[in-house]
UniProtKB/TrEMBL annotation:
PANTHER family, A to Z: ALPHA METHYLACYL-COA RACEMASE-RELATED, CAIB/BAIF FAMILY ENZYME (AFU_ORTHOLOGUE AFUA_1G05360)-RELATED
Alphabetical UniProt keywords: Transferase
Superkingdom per UniProt: Eukaryota
Bilayer-crossing regions: none
Family assignment from sequence similarity: Belongs to the CoA-transferase III family.
Coiled-coil stretches: none
Protein name as catalogued: CoA-transferase III family protein
Keyword set includes Repeat: no
Amino acid sequence: MTSNKYSQLEETKIIFNSLLSLLPEEFITENVSKIKFENYSNNLIVPCPLKQTETISALKGLEALVALKLTQERFGSNDGTCKIDLEHALLFLFSTYCSSVDGFFKTDKKEVLKYLKPTDLNQAQSDPYRRMSANLYRTKEKDRFYHIHGSLDATTCLEMIGLPAFVPGLEDYDKIVDIYQEKLDQFTVDELEELNTKNKQAGVEALKPDVFLQTKHGATISKVPPFEVETLETSTPKIEFAATLSSRKILDGVKVLELCRIIAGPTIGKILAEYGATVIKVTSDDTLPDVPFFQVDANMGKHTTNLNLKDPNDRLEFEKLLKDADVVIDGYRKGAIEKLGYGPTKLTQLGIERGKGYIYGAENCFGFVGEWSGRPGWQQIADCASGVAWVQGLSMGKNEPMVPLSQ
């Protein structure tokens, strides 16, 4: 007798197996049997109809395969197994919000601020009125919704829809939402798209999944795997791991430069640091705003440096760091770092000149192909564009899109 009861564990294994083709065969053959998934409950922990627990656990399984392969190459045979606990993997997605400083969490706004670097240069987070410039609103077409996004400086977004940049003293959440909604009720989606494009903002309409797949970008990006690896050049020799280790971590001795902000890109650097890499986060606190509390978790295990890559003197300092780097992580919009002269094309050339290549890792919101690939974006923007917000809203009995975990 068979059971039709849904199993998170079995679904995780199915997703994991479907992703194996993304890795080289030599990463899989010897080690796939050593990956073990486990959980102690079959409850859907997150109130979301999408398979977040299963997907992140499967991705951690891929990470484990790479870790096992590198362990074998660096330390010899490895007869151990890697266990992926589904609940622990899910908590990884919440680590930014679960972090604390001396017992103070993100919700302890006043108490925790004294421990944080003041990187909210434009009051995009600290001012409740300006913060709500990043939210999902109904438009003039009552059945269509648009997520405006003021990013890290709300002024442009606010002024483009006809609202003042600042309203001192306005902190009541409901009043703020009403002000925005009254204004957004005056615009159609097409009008907002035109303003959004003209002002280079990160807004997007909340599309249903089938509608997204019918767009040119959706049709293109749906054929692309979650990640791709390509060879930039083949003239430089393979570099062996350093012989002398300060620890038994597989990436000990690997030097990483992280050009990222917010959460997604810095998370890549954080993972590499956990495996022993020396990670230097390169930012410019005086000119590049960030979300202060996110850095508590995202900067874990890293070094940081302030360099403005538009300043000639700072560029010289950055190029000194580049000489010894093995990996560069790019978390900006497609082409942004390339314009500064440090994208994959330039680094390929520099790698050939120094006789040692670079690994260049890049992530963004809309991917690297398709007509929207150059648009700025955030997690909420991806959720709205791809249909996730509509799936979430309908699952909650609402005939409207809702960004997961923000309601």
